[in-house]
Amino acid sequence: MLKQTFPSPEALRRFPFGLADIALILGTLVLLALIARVGAGTLVSFVPPDVVPGISLDPRNLPYYAGRSTLRMFIALFYSTLFTLIYGYIAAKSRRAERVLIPLLDILQSVPVLGFLSITVTGFIALFPGSLLGLEAASIFAIFTSQVWNMTFSFYHSLRTLPPELDEAVRLYRLSGWQRFTKLEFPTAMIGLLWNAMMSFGGGWFFVAASEAISVLNQQYTLPGIGSYVAAAVAAENLPALGWALLAIAIVIILVNQLFWRPLVAWADKFRLEQSAAAQAPESWVYDLLKAARIPHLLGRVLAPWGEAINRILSLLTPPRTPRVVETGGQAMGDRLYNLILLVVIGGLLVVGLHFIFTTVGLSEVIKTFGLGLLTLLRVLVLLVFSTLVWTPVGVAIGFNPRLATLLQPVVQFLASFPANFIFPFATLFFIRSHISIDWGSILLMSLGAQWYILFNSIAGAMSVPTDLREMATSLDLRGWLLWRKLIIPGIFSAWVTGGVTATGGAWNASIVSEVVAWGSTTLTASGLGAYIAHATGAGDWPRITLGIGMMSLFVVGLNRVFWRRLYELAETKYHL
To answer: Do residues 450 and 510 lie in contact, with contact meaning Cβ atoms separated by under 8 Å?
Structure first.
């Protein structure tokens, strides 16, 4: 059987230090040169409508376009990670902040990417007059909004379900806040956060076309990138160009997986919480090369004093928390005041919303959008049930079997990262020729972008189940439904809930590009809230854009509050290790 990586880890371990260092230096120089070449294109002039970027369907431009899109994706991933660590930490540590930040996160997750673009694109362009940087910032921000919510939910929930015995040990040793974060909280959350970051990165590709070929408020903006290349190929009904674009994005996904994600997966395996070692650790030839090279170890020794000094300073700034005795009456009074402020703010927002409804669109339009929202909700629920029944067992099988994970993880990563809307034109042609209603076909299109959240979180949850518990289940001869009821469901439940929340949010977001699909001059439109928002955004109809986004937020937040929040509480109190 062929090895998954080439060269093999054994061969890399036999490399002399000099060869590994040379490979590392050359790789770093090539990476810096590519970033400089691709990044230079962001500094050109941009004065619409006279000086604007153009898109050529010549396949020879695809490597450059792919590089521009990939650079945007990684910049968005960096800011998504930073936002996740700060926002998720505050929400998990402050009871009062949690009551505001988590509902706000529900609302932000429910706002579609087109909604963020409608609000921000003009402002970003105004920040950098005469430069393409403004449009680049708007595109990166749109990709950021497609990546960050899933990662934040994962990190927040990991902090809320820390193993109690480890939490007690940290308190007994009186570790500082910084030490607690670096020794317990961040390592515990690492595996789930990493797999959700992989999923978010893949989900970002889904909205690359919308963020590069921007059509909002009756304005058309185009950025050089593989997403705008696909949009131009669809408009021109150019199937060969689409084929070249699919090949280019496939190559990019494979390279990113081999050079970035697989090394991170191999490195993060050390953060598994268990008493016995995994049967087979994940492997990566890039990670083996980095361990074999001398330069990273030398840099580590040089920077070690600085790292220790920073750790000491941060530890002094975050001393161990001393349990405070708070008078019940004072705490209750503070909670009442806090609740009163929240009620005043919510009441003010409701008054503004009602005033908007009765002075712009009217009550009949609200009833119409609510009905369209129910249709989209039905599609989302069908997708959720299908994804759970199909992908949860697959994710558990991959997470429990390291050999299977080594074989299938690149395939899963490729499928999840592949932007499903790149094949929408082919699906549109199929629907047209097969006379399939887009009202049903849109469920398939939505699932292509949202189902992977269930799969990736199931994999992360299964990988987090300690090996010693799995070995005990094997010793007790637990099989079939008994194994699922006693080990698998309790072990992956919290991860599945995170996947379900983000999958439903992703499905609502995907409905905007799934309920309206086009091939050349032919457009298929489903009845649903996503199509309503897409039409309003394209026409620049601000009242209906606001109504559509508000109604979608109402559905998402309501579902999260009524259904998902209760499952989160169940995961925190009963189903966590």
So the answer is: yes
